[in-house]
Amino acid sequence: MASLDDLKKTFFDECDEAMQQIEIGLTDIRSGEGNDETINAVFRGVHSVKGGAGIFGFEQLVGFAHVFETVLDGLRNGSLTATPDNLDVLLSASDVLSDLVQMSRGGETIAEGFGAEVRSGLEQIIEQGGGGGDDGDIAPAEFDGLDFMPVAVNLDDLGAEDAPVGGDGRGVYKIVFRPKPEMLKKANEPLYVLRELRKLGEAEIEANSDDLPALTDIEVDVPYLWWTITLRTEEPRAKVEEVFEFVMGDCDLSIENDTPPAAVAAPQVVIADTAMPEAVAALPVIEAPSVAPAMPAPRAEIKPAMAKPEGEQGGGGGRGKPAATTTRIELDRIDRVVNMVGELVISQAMLGQIVQDLPESTSMRLIQILDEVAHHTRELKDSVMSMRAQPVGSVFQRMPRLVREVAAKTHKKVRLETHGETTEVDRSIIERLGDPLTHIIRNSVDHGVESPSARIAAGKPEEGVIRLSAEHRGGRIVIEIKDDGAGVNSERVLKIAREKGLVGPDAQLTEDEINNLIMMPGFSTAEVISDISGRGVGMDVVRSNIQDLGGRITLKSVRGQGMTIQLALPLTLAVMDGMVIKVGTQTYVMPLSAIVECLRPSRGEISALIGTHGMLQLRGEFVPIILLSDLLGVDSASGSNSERVVIVTDNGDGSRIGLVVDELLGHQQVVIKSIEESYGAVPGIAAATILGNGRVAFILDVEKLAELAAQTPITNHATSRAAQPALN
Amino acid sequence: MPVPGAIKVLVVDDQNSVRQMTRMALEEIGFRHIHEAENGVQAMETAAVQPLDLIISDYNMPEMDGLGLLRAVRGHPVARKVPFIMLTGRGDRELVVKAAQAGVNNYLVKPFTSAILRDKIEAVIGKLS
């Protein structure tokens, strides 16, 4: 049995879902996309939080949720209207509720007046609507003035209780019984069946002889007659069906319950005049202290009720149509499977290695099977990863609040649009995405979007728009944050960069390169250090956060039109596609995502340039070349330079370098094993992995390598060669 | 005198935590046959294949709410007499009236203790042994 703590955890998980539902719903309503079901879904969300909070004794949460819920109920039933002002209060209320949930989860003591301002805002809305039928205080467990009489039932009656009982206490069945030839061939006699039926009660039997041919055409083993029987009985349906037990498959049979509508015993509701609130008093039913109206015919009721219960609650709110069956699994368990899959990938690679060394006669078949194993392993990996995957919506949902808060502090008008919230990515990425995203969006509101007056002066709508979107693209998840603000002021950025010595005074930079300077360490452009941005943590931290995740961040800005920041992240941190390369005797793995292309350039394509290993001329573009052997301090084994390979990589900021390696060993899925715990961060090395031959190989951090290359002066050894292109 | 261990009860709530708490309370009373459903539609599916002696359902659920479920149960040829206890929020008196009309046997206000739950059940099916 689950412990109370487990249940609390479940409750808070549910709260997260509910909060998401509330936030999305309210945002939709405010942007005019909401409908009746949206407000219902929001109501249900708050109601769920309140219900659970009550059970677990989070009284302040219950109290606040109750007032919140009352307003939503008013909106639902039309006694209150969703004016923009009211919606703002509701959005703040959802923020407070979210805070209260978080504080309750953390076991914090909640200050007495917490959220009091918003609460009084909610109460004001209730008052505007004429009291809302509730004084905001929570009613006691029993309702005053509502004299409810529980309806007792004798359980013993239930068992034999499946006969539909008509007004006279008897069930009526309409039975159509049509024997098939098989029935006669098995020597079953319809007459006996009809006689048995008669024993159950009063049966009106009508034979249908329409199919009966002329006497000369009659065949003895073909049944031509069929019967319609109206049976009145006190026996349950099961008894009726039992009669047909032996002929079940050999006849067409329909047994319909034709019982006339019966009045279901209704409990008595008496409401004392004294404490009768108006809302309840207005109900026409209250005047019936004796017997409530008879139920409609039972059969007619079921289907429509299943489809839509009295038009009250339609689909499942934000959850789409029929909810997929789900089960909650501890993350640890999934992680264990992920680890096992990782080991499996390694074992499989090892097996592949051994098979390759076998004589071809034996290896042929093995290779075939191994291919299948590889295929299944990949699928297994994908399935397990999809279990860990979560929609990015869980991070996105925090952003509307952030935008509201920052916009309010900076006196700007900003609307956040989100797209692709359902895009899924590994949980570990989700967990580490929140901070960078928060920072970027905070920046966009604080520095990107202009003040309303500046916007109007620039001929833009007063309200700025930040568009946050996510999509899967090429095996990665791409998250884009786009604002329609002023864009990066490149002159100012360049000026500051020069002042801070980040750029040489004579350096010629393209617009894009200048814009990317804001992600350099130590760069902060905010002229006024506000309490929102500019806490000494800049875009450089964002960039390194994203890089730590194996992702890339790119920034595009158009002056006066806005800025777009794009984050391209791997879908998982556990396994990745890598290119296995060789430098000297060492084997390394390079993330496939960083590789633009691999080529073996001819001599003419390399131009010498003093102070470099050479420049590779690639379709009219010059790419600096770096000898990986120099950078990593290993001897290159390749005697003949012409056999070396250049891997052109993308450094994430749009710049490219060509890394010279000795050999490409092939593309392989590798399991990422962190070395940071044991060795700390090693510049240029992202992690390690175990290769098929059981040896450990380092996974290179391409962007760091490029940085290292820029910082490391070319050694004497290299300089002597630098006079000539590296690859001659 | 009904024996709790022999009674088949269905707990309907869209919140797993509430379902589990209700289950814990029921187990404390001595119930052993406890089925669960997340909403009215699932509950009706269960009721169609599983003879039930008692339904305890939340009111506020997506897909089909408690009132919808109650009406569906009362209109169902097999399940229509199954005792039905509705869980309500505090202050939800209007709902109690509606539920009473639709043939609810008793109501139970959240949050509740197992003692209150027991009282409410006993008021419907008699003193438990």
Q: Judging by the overall fold, what is the CATH architecture of the largest domain in chain A?
A: 2-Layer Sandwich
Summarize the largest interface: chains and residue counts.
Answer: A-B, 82 and 64 residues
CATH topology value of chain B: Rossmann fold
Strand content of chain A: 15-25%
- Strand order of the biggest β-sheet of chain B: 2-1-3-4-5
CATH superfamily of chain B: Response regulator
Structural class of chain B: alpha/beta
Fraction of helical residues of chain B: 40-55%
Describe the protein in words.
The complex is a heterodimer of chains A (728) and B (129). Chain A is α+β, with helices and mostly antiparallel strands and 728 residues long. Chain A folds into 5 domains: 4-128, HPT domain (Four Helix Bundle (Hemerythrin (Met), subunit A)), CATH 1.20.120.160; 160-257, Alpha-Beta Plaits (2-Layer Sandwich), CATH 3.30.70; 331-390; 392-570, Heat Shock Protein 90, CATH 3.30.565.10; 575-722, SH3 type barrels (Roll). Helices cover 41% and strands 20% of the residues of chain A. In chain A, the strands form 6 sheets. In chain A, strands 16-20-21-19-18-17 form a 6-stranded mixed β-sheet. A 5-stranded mixed β-sheet of chain A has the order 8-10-11-13-12. Chain A has a 5-stranded mixed β-sheet with strand order 22-14-15-24-23. In chain A, a hairpin with a 2-residue loop joins strand 18 and strand 19. Chain A is extended, with a radius of gyration of 37 Å. The two termini of chain A are 73 Å apart. Mean pLDDT of chain A is 76; it is low at 132-140, 160-169, 261-323, 527-536 and 716-728. Chain B has 129 residues and is of the alpha/beta class. The model of chain B has no long low-confidence stretch (mean pLDDT 88). In chain B, helix 1 packs across helix 5 and helix 2 (40-49) packs parallel to helix 3 (66-74). Chain B has one domain (4-92, 104-125): Rossmann fold. Chain B has helices spanning 16-29, 40-49, 66-74, 93-101, 114-125; strands spanning 8-12, 33-37, 54-58, 84-88, 106-109. Chain B has a 5-stranded parallel β-sheet with strand order 2-1-3-4-5, sandwiched between helices. Chains A and B meet through helix 1, helix 2, helix 6 and helix 11 of A and helix 1, helix 2, helix 3, helix 4 and strand 5 of B.
